[in-house]
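Record type: monomer structure entry
Structure origin: computed from sequence
Chain ID: A
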Amino acid sequence: MRIHCKLFVIAVCLGVFLLLYFFGGNSADEQLLKEVKEDNPSPSAPSEVVHKVASKFTYRKHHELNVAAGEAPKERKNGNSINRVANVNTKSRLKTNGGRPGSRRAPAEEVMHLAVVACGNRLEETLIMVKSALLFSVKKIKFHIFAEDPLAAHFEKGLGQWPRSIAAKFQHQIYPITFSVGNQEEWKKLFKPCAAQRLFLPVILKEVDSLLYVDTDVLFLRPMDDIWAFLKEFNSTQLAAMAPEHEVPKIGWYSRFARHPFYGVTGVNSGVMLMNLTRIRSTMFKNSMIPDGLSWEDLLHPLYQKYKNHITWGDQDLLNIIFHYNPECLFTFPCLWNYRPDHCMYGSNCKEAEEEGVSILHGNRGVYHDDKQPAFKVIYDAIRD
């Protein structure tokens, strides 16, 4: 009986204490609301009132604790008290007719777009490039794969065999090889098989705003997200980004042998090319053929007809000619984003890669498949396996 009496007394005391606590807290809150109203006699937007009430709550708590302004507790610095009040206001705004919750639309997840062109025996290289992109990237990727008809089914089969957890990280679409102007066979045989297809990406992928194009012999050694971020560094006139063809003019190909105009001092390499397709489609490009500018699609065929007897590297040479006459349109990124055997076969001449490491490995000259550059081959084999 005594135990029951003691429990009853404890319960009564606890109830009285809670009543005093809540009555005291409500009066304090009413006082704060009164202060805000006196400070702002004119009607304010709900969000302004929320923030003013929150700021007074925050100030009162700090003042009562004798905390200096520069020594606020960590949770206050993060704005948790403001967030709590703001969340109440947000929930109230989501109510619609009849008090039912309104629909809240989640922000669309950003998807990066990556294009590659594969013909001949480039199936394995392309799949390993895709694998390297997925190994490191954070955001989802949509792959735009341009391939000859015999390869299309092999790509579908190869991509379909990957685990479901990997398949959830990407989308893909396979396109036939097509050229919107000029002679199809002539374009197809320009330099390496199908390489000229990259010139027509702005024309074909009309629904895509921005895109990263890479050759089949490219390997990502860090997230694609990092090179994708260069798009935000473009100024108002820049619409594409590439790395220089060489860092040292006296051993660069363009600076020694080119018989046509090229960009800058050493030209640019088109094996890794970041493009704002929307800007490319809406720009009129200066050229050496007519006084007025030409659109990208209208420029390609006459430019090829004029220089076809003077170009060695096909589509890359045409890009160099375009940006020679429109240098304000090109953003150049460092050589570590397009690191090739040329950067190490005549001594090390990519200082950024020495300091920060290689971000994208470009194994041109067939170095993934012979023993001339063992470091390139061992990375390719590791990602393949």
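Annotation 1: The mean pLDDT is 80.
Annotation 2: DSSP finds 16 helices and nine strands in the chain.
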